Amino acid sequence: MSKRGVEERYLAACAIAREAGDLMRRLYEKRETGSYKLKGHQDYLTEADGEVEKLIVRRIGEAFPGDSVFGEEGGGKFGARAWVIDPIDGTANFARGIPHFCVSIAYVQDNAITVGALCNPMLGELFAAKAGGGATLNGRPMKVSKTRDMRSATVELGWSMRRPMEDYVAMVTRVVKEGAGIRRSGSGALGLAYVADGRTDAYAELHINSWDCLAGILMVNEAGGWTNDFLAGNGLTKGNPILASNAALRRAIIKATGIG
Ligand code: LIP
Q1: What is the pLDDT of residue 36?
Q2: Residue located nearest, by CA, to atom 7 of ligand 1
Q3: In this predicted model, what pLDDT tens digit does every residue of 68-104 receive, in sequence order?
Q4: For the purposes of burial, counting CB atoms within 10 Å of the CB of 16, is it exposed (0-12), middle (13-18) or buried (19 or more)?
Q5: Could you tell me which CATH class the domain 150-257 is placed in?
Q6: Ligand 1 in contact with 46 (CB < 6 A)?
Q7: Cβ(59)–Cβ(85) under 8 Å?
Q8: In this structure, are residues 53 and 85 in contact, taking their beta carbons and an 8 Å threshold?
Q9: Is the minimum distance from the CB of 158 to ligand 1 under 6 angstroms?
Q10: What's the pLDDT tens digit per position in 140-196?
């Protein structure tokens, strides 16, 4: 694809993420307590997920009718030019009234993440990246942290029911034993963006879906960090483990999490 084609998709991803974020915030502020469903054990679904995804799919179709789109709620296709979207990453937070969530939009060209955009409307934060073009927060360049010692590190360990609880507890135990501080905030997309912006030093999860993480993976790499080969095997369609880190902690965090 030409540079112009990538730039057009980058600008569109940013604009659509902002518009979707504005809609998400309006829906959040008018939601009624308890207005959510559970599509699985600890797997939340709100009406807002569907409304936001419909807006994103419509905008992408208007601008790039020849591209494929895959959304967490509506499904779709993974073509050679594929948009992979999560309308609300951090749905459990949205559902329970915790203002820590975002829209995640990624564009993948021939199985390579090319464009990513995340918007957290509650903080007015737009995270964006394009392959070879750097990563930004509201237009400001992002860089990963320089933390070199696990005893000074802050590491987010994502969790879901998609892997055995024993495996998660074992990973938490290993990371804490290495001296790191840990957190789990319920949005893998924002967790990865925070690594790219140096707010945390690493993000790990034993299984995450592509729509949650592709945009964040690109941001971490464009901000000078490292990620495992998430797209190996069936990563795009079935998900995989994810590990993202600043450059200095890479070896230590691979050892502690067992993801590499
Ligand atoms: C979430 C992910 C998070 C994971 C949660 C959930 P959702 O995505 O971002 O990493 O730990 O279980 O899958 O469901 O809020 O779009």
Answers
A1: 79
A2: 89
A3: 999 999 999 999 999 999 999 999 999 999 999 999 9
A4: buried
A5: alpha beta
A6: no
A7: no
A8: yes
A9: yes
A10: 999 999 999 999 999 999 999 999 999 999 999 999 999 999 999 999 999 999 999
CATH 3.30.540.10 for the 3-141 domain, yes or no: yes
Angstrom distance (rounded) from CA 64 to CA 20: 17
Quote helix, strand, coil % in the chain, to nearest 5. 40, 30, 35
Kindly calculate the radius of gyration of the chain based on its CA atoms and give it in whole angstroms.
Answer: 17
Cα distances (angstroms) measured from residue 120 to each of 91, 161, 191, 202: 12, 24, 12, 20
Asked if residue 160 has its Cβ within 6 Å of ligand 1, the reply is: yes
> Over 90: is that where the pLDDT of 46 sits?
no
Domains in the chain: boundaries: 3-141, 150-257
The alpha carbon of 156 and the centre of ligand 1 are apart by a number of angstroms equal to 13
**Ligand 1 closest atom vs CA 44:** 14
Distance 194 CA to ligand 1 centre (A): 15
Please name the residues in contact with 12: beta carbons below 8 A apart, sequence gap of 6 or more: 59, 60, 63, 64
Instruction: For residue 142, list its beta bridge partners.
Output: none
Residue whose CA lies nearest to ligand 1 atom number 12: 160
- d(CA 167, CA 206) in angstroms, rounded, equals 8
Residue 104 Cβ inside 6 Å of ligand 1? The answer reads no
